[in-house]
Design a protein that fits this description.
alpha/beta, Trna Endonuclease, Chain: A, domain 1, 6-stranded mixed beta sheet, 6 helices, 6 strands
């Protein structure tokens, strides 16, 4: 089981986030998972932050919709209302700005990817659902969540090898504001 920090009470979480957490709970203890990560400055919230064993960080937003208004290229077609790609992009931007400040050399920076989990959508019932949405947001359905390490490898496959894998960046992460909050709650929760 990963080292998990539950900043949102399980009984107050929606069923879709519980589904995602159950999938992430199968990871081993070299992974770190924070459920319900709120930023201090602007109140933005990431449903999950996931730190991998070789470095790398994923910002994961969960949407329990049964339909995702995207075209075959992954462009959002739902108007301005609840654009999940914009939501995950905002928290991803905040996290990137707060974990890689003042890191020298830049090779010590941790690479951050973004993903949207849609546990109520399958690629069978929405065959045009792309694997990647706007601005390189990875779209994960239940099969990808159940095989999370493969989804993780896919998300980080395109990263410059100077930045990932990078265990040194993982160590440095724990010295940043988001990382300190990871390490302030080292106990495992199930």
């Amino acid at each position: 089981m990963p080292k998990s920090i539950l900043l949102r009470p399980i009984d107050e979480a929606n069923k879709d986030e519980r589904t995602v957490f159950n999938c992430l709970s199968t990871l081993d203890d070299s992974w770190h998972v924070v459920w319900g990560y709120y930023t201090k400055e602007n109140g933005e919230e990431a449903d999950f932050l996931i730190l991998g064993p070789q470095g790398g960080l994923m910002v994961l937003e969960v949407k329990g919709w049964e339909f995702l208004a995207v075209d075959a290229e992954g462009n959002w077609k739902g108007g301005d209302h609840e654009n999940p790609f914009l939501q995950v992009d905002q928290i991803w931007t905040w996290v990137k700005q707060h974990i890689n400040v003042d890191l020298e050399p830049k090779l010590d920076s941790i690479h951050v990817v973004r993903a949207l989990a849609v546990p109520n959508i399958t690629r069978n019932n929405l065959p045009m659902l792309p694997a990647i949405g706007p601005r390189f947001t990875h779209i994960l359905t239940v099969p990808e969540l159940e095989n999370f390490t493969t989804a993780w490898d896919t998300a980080f496959k395109v990263v410059d090898k100077r930045y990932y894998p990078n265990p040194k960046a993982r160590e440095r992460f724990f010295l940043t504001d988001p990382g300190i909050r990871f390490s302030q709650n080292p106990e495992q929760h199930g």
